[in-house]
Design goal:
mainly alpha, 3 helices
Length: 61
C-alpha cells in the first residue's frame, strides 16, 4: 500500500454513532459481520471485545 492510498483510505473511513432503526438486519448477516470484526486488529492484539448478537427489539432497547 502506498502512502497516498493509505491517506485516501483514512479520509473515507467513517465511524457510525447512530443507526437507522427502520432498517432491519438479518441475524445471519449480523453473524457474518461479527465474524469479520473479530478478525480485525485490536490494541496490543489482545482482542478484549466480546460480541452479543441480538435481533430482539425489546432487548435492544
Amino acid at each position: 500500500m502506498t502512502p497516498s492510498s493509505f491517506k485516501d483510505l483514512v479520509k473515507v473511513n467513517r465511524s457510525c454513532r447512530r443507526f437507522d432503526n427502520a432498517v432491519k438486519i438479518d441475524k445471519q448477516i449480523l453473524k457474518e459481520l461479527v465474524d469479520l470484526a473479530r478478525n480485525c486488529a485490536s490494541a496490543a492484539n489482545i482482542q478484549p471485545l466480546k460480541y452479543v448478537i441480538c435481533c430482539d427489539e425489546s432487548k435492544n432497547e
